[in-house]
Amino acid sequence: TQLLEQSPQFLSIQEGENLTVYCNSSSVFSSLQWYRQEPGEGPVLLVTVVTGGEVKKLKRLTFQFGDARKDSSLHITAAQPGDTGLYLCAGGVGGTSYGKLTFGQGTILTVHP
Amino acid sequence: EPEVTQTPSHQVTQMGQEVILRCVPISNHLYFYWYRQILGQKVEFLVSFYNNEISEKSEIFDDQFSVERPDGSNFTLKIRSTKLEDSAMYFCASKTSGGAIGELFFGEGSRLTVL
């Protein structure tokens, strides 16, 4: 069974601070995806990383996939209240698993003005 | 913008009753999924569906669960005899291609409450 451990579970910071969310596993994933989920809605994809060591930037968000493809991080620079939400990492495997994703437990981020 | 739509948004049912959750995936998508999220817990994979058959299912997806694509547009999840522990948010998702890469589009979810 593949598991993804996401940390921290809760993060409460002031506007303008930087933060990092971690996603770790003992298993190798073909891809690692980061989602954001608003209350009462489904997860919405932010980014997919597929190559070990890959770094992707989305405005103030930086995503990294570990060299061994077992871990990933999400770094937010100068957080804003609009970044408040639930962030989920999810790992995918290739082959015949048809896109089944294993999700982490999520990080609830609160950015205070 | 195309989206995955789910109905009902919330259903309350008595234990032992049958429930059907409905989903309309994005029209050109070929791969369909159901996930669920028990309150306060992880999003969990239930089943994937391609070419009118189940591709993969999790341990959660036992004989009480079934999926169907009856008319080429709807994708349904049926729970034959609901249990209290089936209370959760159920998400339908679809994508254009299989494998680990490619965006998975989620619906807004159907909240099932079993009393």
Q: What is the topology?
A:
The complex is a heterodimer of chains A (113) and B (115).
Chain A: E1 5-7, E2 10-14, E3 19-24, E4 31-37, E5 44-49, E6 55-58, E7 61-65, E8 71-76, E9 85-92, E10 101-103, E11 107-112
Parallel strand pairs in A: 2-11
Antiparallel strand pairs in A: 1-3, 3-8, 4-5, 4-9, 6-7, 7-8, 9-10, 9-11
Chain B: E1 5-7, E2 10-13, E3 19-24, E4 31-37, E5 43-50, E6 53-57, E7 65-68, E8 75-79, E9 88-95, E10 105-106, E11 110-114
Parallel strand pairs in B: 2-11
Antiparallel strand pairs in B: 1-3, 3-8, 4-5, 4-9, 5-6, 7-8, 9-10, 9-11
Could you name the key traits of this structure?
heterodimer; A: 113 residues; B: 115 residues; mainly beta; seven-stranded mixed beta sheet; four-stranded antiparallel beta sheet; 0% helix
Task: Give an overview of the whole structure.
- The complex is a heterodimer of chains A (113) and B (115).
- Chain A is built from no helices and 11 strands.
- With 113 residues, chain A is mainly β.
- In chain A, strands 2, 4, 5, 9, 10 and 11 form a 6-stranded mixed beta sheet that branches.
- Chain B has 115 residues and is mainly beta.
- Chain B contains no helices and 11 strands.
- In chain B, strand 4 (31-37) and strand 5 (43-50) form a beta hairpin.
- The termini of chain B are far apart.
- The chains are: A mainly beta (113), B mainly beta (115).
- Chain A binds chain B through residues 29-31, 33, 40-45, 48, 50, 88, 90, 92-94, 96-106, and chain B through 4, 31, 33, 35, 41-45, 48, 50, 55-56, 58, 91, 93, 95, 98-109.
**Biggest sheet details of chain A:** 6 strands, mixed
Largest interface: A-B, 28 and 29 residues
Major sheet size, sense and barrel closure of chain B: 7 strands, mixed
Sequence of secondary-structure elements of chain B: EEEEEEEEEEE
The helicity of chain B comes to under 10%
The geometry of chain B reads as globular
Total number of helices of chain A: 0
Total number of β-strand segments of chain B?
11
**Percent of residues of chain A in helical segments?**
under 10%
Instruction: Give the overall average pLDDT of chain A.
Output: 92
**Assembly annotation:** heterodimer
Cα radius of gyration of chain A in angstroms: 14 Å
